[in-house]
Amino acid sequence: MRPDGKLRLGWWSLAVSLLVLGLKYLAWRVSGSAALLSDAIETIINVAAAIGALWALTVASRPPDENHNYGHEKAEYLSAVMEGVLVILTAIGIAVVAWQDWWTPTPLLAPWRGVALNALGGLVNLGWGLALVRAGRQRRSPALTANGRHVISDVWTTVALVIGVSLIPITGYLRLDAIISGLVAVNVLRVGFEMTRRSIAGLMDEAPGSEMMQAARAVISETAEGALEAHDLRFRSAGSISFIDFHLVVPGEMRVQDAHVICDRIEHALRRHFGRAVIHIHVEPEDKAKQTGVPVVP
């Protein structure tokens, strides 16, 4: 997807977050439920996260410059880290609301109308969250993926709230409202820590999963005909860009031009498989072979 496509998704994410916030705010106002108030508080963070993602996507779309030779893609990880921290702070705020409601439970005003409005907001979030995660995975965008996961976690919260708040007028147990709020806080805290962990891994240049490494090895092995082996393969990602470098061993008598042709062939194949990529290949003579690298398929 072109940068303007990502930005369009960012604007839509902000608009959907504002719509859902309005629905959940009305749900709390008409019901007076502390649990629904907790859900509305979490949705405020969705709005803040959407703004952060929009900023990150704007920065990440900028081309490399003198101060950022490798581009600005890591801005998306910064956005995802900030969103994770905001989610953790939200969990603490929701826990405070739950604690207060436990000691001073109050009857609900119009629980069924509140539940209906909250459920409607949850359905909107479900559709949009799935769309964001799918787009984030396809475009390898940490900001969109983190935003989508956060929205989907909000859907599970909404499901629990709809069930729980519906039980309050049926059972007459007012403290159930505070219990539900506390459970929401625990779930939000879990999501926040997981989002932060994933984003920090990206900032620390954590290697991709074994499947991607194996795929890179297979592409090199199948397209390096004329070379002897490849070794010291390194792979990292920054947003939608992959950074791949390795050493390629060729026969000592091979001309530079022939080695260059092999390198070009490998680079084209890697980009076809992984999309946008910055690739560095260090060509070495055969006495540098390690016998433990990537073998070349004849």
Automatic annotation (TrEMBL):
Its main location: membrane. Belongs to the cation diffusion facilitator (CDF) transporter (TC 2.A.4) family. It is found in: Membrane. Transmembrane segments: none annotated. It comes from the Bacteria. The keyword Transmembrane applies. Keywords: Membrane, Transmembrane, Transmembrane helix, Transport. Residues 210-286 form the Cation efflux protein cytoplasmic domain. It is a multi-pass membrane protein. This is Cation transporter. GO terms for cellular component: plasma membrane. Residues 13-204 form the Cation efflux protein transmembrane domain. GO terms for molecular function: cadmium ion transmembrane transporter activity; ferrous iron transmembrane transporter activity; zinc efflux antiporter activity. One of its GO terms (biological process) is intracellular zinc ion homeostasis. Gene3D superfamilies: Cation efflux protein transmembrane domain (1.20.1510.10), Cation efflux protein, cytoplasmic domain (3.30.70.1350). InterPro entries: Cation_efflux (IPR002524), Cation_efflux_CTD (IPR027470), Cation_efflux_CTD_sf (IPR036837), Cation_efflux_TM (IPR058533), Cation_efflux_TMD_sf (IPR027469), CDF_Transporter (IPR050291). The keyword Transmembrane applies.
